[in-house]
Structure formats: C-alpha cells, structure tokens
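Check the record.
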Amino acid sequence: MAQPIELQPQAITVQELAAINSRQVPERYIREGVGALDASFPVLDVPTIDLQLLASSSSTSGDELDKLRSALSSYGCIQAINHGITSAFLDKLREVARQFFALPSEEKKKYSREIGSIEGYGNDMILSEDQILDWTDRLYLILRPEDKQTLKFWPENPESFRGILNDYSTKLHVILEVLLKAMARSLNLEENQFLQQYGDQATMQARFNFYPICPRPDQVLGVKPHADGSVITMLLQDKEVEGLQVLKDDQWFNVPIIPQALLINVGDQAEIMSNGIFKSPVHRVVTNSERERITVAVFCIPHPDQEIQPVEELINETHPSLYKKVKDYVSLYFQYYQQGRRPMEAALI
C-alpha cells in the first residue's frame, strides 16, 4: 500500500489555538457524541502486575504469569509496578516534557516535523479535507536503535532532555525483554518466542503528548479511538490529570492514574503473534476544560522487513490461524488510523 500523502501541514498548533481563543473550538475538531470525562464513565480496574515477580524464578512468579495472561486477554493492558525505574526519575521525565511544551512557539518550532513524516514537533497529518483533527500537539522521536536517532528533532532546551530520554529508553528496553519473555511463558511457550519475532532491528519510538485545555470536552477528543500498531506500548501518564479511556464490552472506561506505574498495553502486532489470545485494546483520549495534560508514550515496533505471524504452537484444529503473515504493519497503520478504521482488518484471514 502506498504511503499516505499529507495535503498540507497545520498552520497553527493546538496549543496556540487554545491560547488565542479559550471559549471556542474550530469546526475541524468537533465530533458528535464524545461525552466529557466525568462520573458517567465507569473506571477500568486495570490489573496491577509486579514486573520483579515476572522476572524472578520463584514460586510466586507462576501466579503473576497467570495474572498477566488473564489481564492481557481480558483488558489488553496492565499497570506495571516494580519496574526498576524510580519515581524520582519518572518525575524528571515528566518535568522535561512540561518544560519543552512551555517554551515559546518559535523555540518549539525549531524541531517541527517535515511534511509526510511523523518525527519531530507538530500535530495530526492532514490526509483529507474532511478529516476531524485531534486536540493535541506532539513531539515524536525515534529512540532506538541509536543510529536511527535524528538529533535535529531532539530538543536542546531543556538541557537535560536528551540525556534523560536516552536513559529512559535503556531502562524501557530492559522492561520490554522481561515482559515479552513473561508473555511467552504465560502461554507455555519457550520464553524467546515473542522476542525473536520482535527482532533485534526493532525501533523504539517516543511520543510526547500535550493536551491543552479545551472549552468543549463534550465534542472534542485529544486522540481519536484506535488500537496501537506496535508490539508493546508503554505509557507514562500525567501524574494528576486523567484522560485515557479504553473500550471494553462496547463501553468506554476511564483508566485511573497510578503515578509510579507504567501503563503497558499490547499492540496489534502482539495480538497477531499470540493468535488473538492477547487483545490490542481500542482506546482514546478525552479533553479537559480545566487542566492541560502531558503524557509520554513509547511504541516498540519490529523492523519493517520483519515477518510477524501467529506462533505455530498456538495454532491447532480447535484454534486455527486467525491472521496472515504481515510485514511493515505500521505503513498500513496511519492510513487506516486517519480513516477511523482498524488496520487489523487487513491482517485477518
């Protein structure tokens, strides 16, 4: 499938729009039937998983593996605790993100993304004239492998930004290995099965998200409903402001904040590998009329040439293969995403 063609970049960031007019939202951001973040949405009881237990060979790790399998099959996501990253470090990461988005517009725009590319500072690619836009600005950076980093997009202000982000990617890589091995063991597979498919040429991509105050949270979304095209996504939530919602049983649920936890969800490519046992959850971000919100999402994505397919041991007469082999899944992803469709449609047999 051809790469999507961007019609034109947005002339103004959402942060600038919100500053210019705090009472109105341009038509291009309006959606019907959004529903604001309030008591009308139930809270999703996302299972909390102890990553230290998953990494250990103690007798208690078996219980945690069962919990992991159940969580990823039912919810598609976990609140990961005891992940080896201190609360103080996570707060530093939140702080450099906040400092970057607080910079003057001219300073931030030094890192603007180029047309047709996701990397750098900006907002939605505009792929059609009638596309409804998300109420968010983003800084999108490739973290790993290091030789794929495009440093012209990496802020030099705040000064500590680059060092903290590099440290974070190293820490997340350790967590990713623990998690992929545990996911395989939870399905009684050899522990490297998912890790091998993920591959040693995989990329880790960070997206810093800024959601300005929005006067119409009942009509505007921070991010439209979607599931991730990754194998794994790790989200550092805002410490105080909620906004993430997950679709379960045709109902939207608010995802609570645990400040010291990482919210980790499986993406479409892990659903394919597990032959549909693990579910890639559909989620969205709602807006807030009183407070801005900042999050950091990291997507773990196989190399475009890597073949992704259901693990053979998970296919039998009772459970036939549900998915084709796929390559370069992410190139499908953005076109389907902007159309509000799931790219998984293209992978189903």
